[in-house]
Amino acid sequence: MENLISLVNKIQRACTALGDHGEESALPTLWDALPSIAVVGGQSSGKSSVLESVVGKDFLPRGSGIVTRRPLVLQLHRIDEGREYAEFMHLPRKRFTDFAAVRKEISDETDRETGRSTKQISSVPIHLSIYSPNVVNLTLIDLPGLTKVAVEGQPESIVQDIENMVRSFIEKPNCIILAISPANQDLATSDAIKISREVDPKGERTFGVLTKIDLMDKGTNAVDILEGKSYKLQFPWIGVVNRSQADINKSVDMIAARRREREYFSNTTEYRHLAHRMGSEHLGKMLSKHLETVIKSRIPSLQSLISKTIAELEAELSRLGRPVATDAGGKLYMIMEICRTFDQIFKEHLDGVRPGGDKIYGVFDNQFPAALKRLQFDKHLSMDNVRKIITEADGYQPHLIAPEQGYRRLVESSLICIRGPAEAAVDAVHGILKELELKQYPTLRVEVGNAAVESLDRMREESKKATLQLVDMECGYLTVEFFRKLPQDIEKGGNPTHSIFDRYNDSYLRRVGSVVLSYVTMVCGSLRNSIPKSIVYCQVREAKRSLLDYFFADLGKKETKQLSSLLDEHPAVMQRRTSLAKRLELYRSAQAEIDAVAWSK
């Protein structure tokens, strides 16, 4: 039992040192999964006296009003021999053998957080460990006493603030509630019972402790409560008799106080039959035994949580990458590896393993065709424009059979319009390729990003040149077979007796415009297929093949200092990696120790 509870205490201390017990962590915390005991009660309910009786030492601040203004996480460690001492988490290398000094440090540390002149409270806990041969292994959390009204110097919200703080601890399913109620007050008005019942309605996690039994009015007793008749809990009520204020003033020690407590229950007729399960000594032993039972029952879920968290920590550390190497060779290798990873991720985006490549297809399948459709060829081939271009092409000598030069000029001037959508498609793909970035090292991200952009810019220029050449090829050489059919088509619908000058009439010009539009539409269909091929060949394929080639060539020329400047990892990333590594070490250690306990059961 002692080993098991000591193990949990050890893990809790390690969790606290790493900050692995707060809501700010995105990962599940081991601290919250470990069972703990929270001491709850109203002001002046005898809460502090119960704790001191369990410990057997005077060490808690006393006074009127709110004395406990911060949670106190109290870990008791039983030692076989030696002098009793205490240690605070915030003073790790200092041992306190004078428990009056412990009381003063608790007050001082409270004031450091909340202010000496105020009566404010704080949810930031104080962590105290006590090592003694006279204690049982146990962890208790002393919480500020519940109150009903704010006194002078306190904000009006103090009542709700304290209740919210207490709830934040006792609402956790792994929290065992020690509800302290004074026997000389009506149990129906007990703050501890009221709030415990709200979070634990079945009483499965609640232990009731009745204080000030010796201060009850004559003729009355607490037998009905202690026997569970007045208010039944899953666990038996425990009565305690604390030192009176007169005893405290006379510095009556705990050994004498415990003896008097035993004598009180043994010699009082009403409580004699309950004496074997009354008193602060029994309370400590019972809580320790119950805590051991709860811990044992939680071992499987703890093992599951630890395994899951280790996997999550390892995954995040893997995403963050290794720490920066110290030697030049190591730095160069690390930079090359990071760049290769960047290059591989870039390819995966294009190949469909990661999102991104579909956007390029969207350019080819939607954006580029839509841009071609928006070209207003019909306006360009209006009657007036066709007449103008044909007559200009004829010059002083009108065409004899078909206006060949006119056709060429009409086709060329129409196809030139396709250059705009073609260039836009190249630019759109270029923009998609530039979207990726390297996030781990700021300077390296800039350098690699710049190198990648420079390569993509070069590829874009080559792609534009090749793509526009496709358009220029169509302008420079018309498909003859298409136009060889024209004389036949004209003869079918025309009148061969018309004079040459009649060929400038509206019907004739309309036919010419229709023929040119048909040809341009045919060419658009062809370019719609060939331009994406050109873009993929010149940009996408090249980006996959040689995105960082220029950067790699330049990298080999850099000296150690320049390589170091590339790996100026962001401090937040370094801090996060260190924090994760420490947490991972904690969880692996906890896993090994809990597994050892589980196997030894």
Question: Nutshell version of this structure?
Answer:
This protein is of the alpha/beta class and 601 residues long. It has helices at 2-18, 30-33, 47-55, 99-114, 158-170, 191-199, 223-226, 245-249, 254-267, 280-320, 328-351, 357-374, 377-380, 383-394, 404-415, 419-433, 442-476, 480-484, 486-493, 506-546, 549-555, 560-566, 571-600, and strands at 36-41, 72-78, 85-88, 91-96, 126-132, 138-142, 175-182, 206-211, 238-239. Helix 1 (2-18) packs antiparallel against helix 23 and helix 17 runs antiparallel to helix 20 (506-546).
Characterization of the model:
- There is one protein chain.
- By secondary structure, the chain is of the alpha/beta class.
- It has helices spanning 2-18, 30-33, 47-55, 99-114, 158-170, 191-199, 223-226, 245-249, 254-267, 280-320, 328-351, 357-374, 377-380, 383-394, 404-415, 419-433, 442-476, 480-484, 486-493, 506-546, 549-555, 560-566, 571-600, and strands at residues 36-41, 72-78, 85-88, 91-96, 126-132, 138-142, 175-182, 206-211, 238-239.
- The protein folds into two domains: 34-278, P-loop containing nucleotide triphosphate hydrolases (Rossmann fold, 3-Layer(aba) Sandwich); 328-488 and 496-568, Four Helix Bundle (Hemerythrin (Met), subunit A).
- Mean pLDDT is 82; it is low at 22-27, 489-494 and 496-501.
- It is built from 23 helices and nine strands.
- It is 58% helix and 8% strand.
- Keywords: Cytoplasm, Cytoskeleton, GTP-binding, Hydrolase, Microtubule, Motor protein, Nucleotide-binding.
- Residues 31-300 form the Dynamin-type G domain.
- Residues 509-601 form the GED domain.
